[in-house]
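FAQ: What does a ligand-bound record look like?

Like this one, built around phosphoenolpyruvate:
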Amino acid sequence: MNATSVSPSPLTADVESSGLPVVLRGVPAVGGVRYAPVLWPGARPAPDAGEVAVELGEPERAGERARFAAASLTVADRLRSRAARATGAAAEVLATTATLAQDRAWTAAIDKRIADGLPAVRALAATADQFVEMFTRMGGLMAERVADLRDIRDRVIAELRGLPEPGVPVPDVPSVLCAEDLAPADTAGLDPHLVVALVTSLGGPTSHTAIIARQLGIPCVVAVQDLAQVRPGAMVLVDGTRGTVTVEPDAGAAAEAVARARREAELADSWRGPGATADGHRVAVLANVQDGAAAHAAASTPAEGIGLFRTELCFLNRDLEPSVGEQAQIYGEVLAAFPERKVVVRTLDAGSDKPLRFAGHPDEANPALGVRGIRIAQGNPDLLTRQLQAIADAAAATGQRPWVMAPMIATPAEAKAFAAQVRSFGLTPGVMIEVPAAALLADRILRHVDFLSIGTNDLTQYTMAADRMSADLATLSDPWQPAVLALVHSAARAGADQGKPVGVCGEAAADPALACVLVGLGVTSLSTAAAAVRAVGAALAGVTLDQCRSAADAALAAESSDVARSAAIAALATR
Ligand code: PEP
Ligand code: MG
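The answer part, i.e. the structure of the complex:
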């Protein structure tokens, strides 16, 4: 397959008219960078195409049930024999899908519909709709199994109609497999030399697509907006670490990006910490976690501690506020993962994209600008008091001395009140800098607290007035925006003047080049997803503090995020 042999898509048309590549954004699932043409799987059978909508007569129903049972058995047997030939996660996934094909609840629901007079294909389609809706409503891991259900439906329908097994064609050249979502049976048999990256418009980081990609050792980006518009054969640069898919990038630049990612991956694998520039300027590299399990996983990386424990993520599914005792136990698990190390606990950042049912959020037209983060404590001060008690109890139980910070601080008065409360529990107070007002008055805020932690995700959203969830505004919601960097600089300068630490815990810290720029702007620690710790540490170890400062100056002086990025990367490459 080749980029020039197919007609242009709307996205390619944009590329050609503007001369700029289009960058699609999604959720990074498996790291790595690849450049190759796009491959889409063939169309799946339409469940109701060509089916007669009439009710089956009584005498035909038994035969139709037998036909369905035979088709299900064939599909399950085929999957099982592929499972036997596969290894590891692929084998497991195939075996699980085979089991699903003969699941009792599933087959009984279809049988019943056939017994009531529906032809097998229609009974199958209706049951799949019912189960898909149910799994979707259950959310989380169950929702991510929806692709498996649809896959079983399509395979059995193809079998009933005597059509070839649906699935992914074997590409002629190494390709990036794009799909709405990929079923395990599609992905399990893939050859990583021919399918070099996976990109889906649905799915989450724990979907089967991501699991298989990890096993195959190929980059994967999921939940990519507008992916459907990328035509087969279009050349794309997939960055599984940043969660981007660049359509029709400059070929030379793309090849260089792939080569650079390979070199960086090799260096990152061998990085052992602690965080420092090549000339020995210490910058702690820390991990962001959301529970005890993630903290233990982070402890197996060279992360020197935890720079952001997002406590609200422990309670997203709760109707009722967890007791102080239960909270203390959960926080204690995280503290225990890094004995004698720095752990920064963030108080509940509920609201906006992370509502908590027990926090009593008001109905708001614009929740990102509403009562979220520390603002919840205005109407519900006891919620914060109980959480601080739980953190203090966890600290006492583990012998740790955690730092505690508040999200969404906007004024020095808020910082002052929070600090007093935190100190009354014997804990060390700090605040997040996520609101431009707080970055501008960082010097006054810092007089009240012991440290700052810059949340570049929200700081970018609020500085650029661009919803961080909007794919259409992705260019604006880029932490490389010089306006955002100027605010980071303002906060870091306040820290340097007062001799207090100022870290970054937003996603910006996970971008190795940007991490170096942040250090050049004066931040004293970087906290990132555990998966990015090694890459960030290795990038920092490869440059001097002077290079970081030159890169920061170049980025600050730029007019756009693209120019800031390329100017900084050039400065980091110059010795
Ligand atoms: C941030 O805004 O950068 C941050 C770390 O907080 P969250 O992503 O949880 O909003
Ligand atoms: Mg935030």
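Follow-up question: can I read anything off the structure? Yes, for example: Confidence is low (pLDDT under 50) at residues 1-18.
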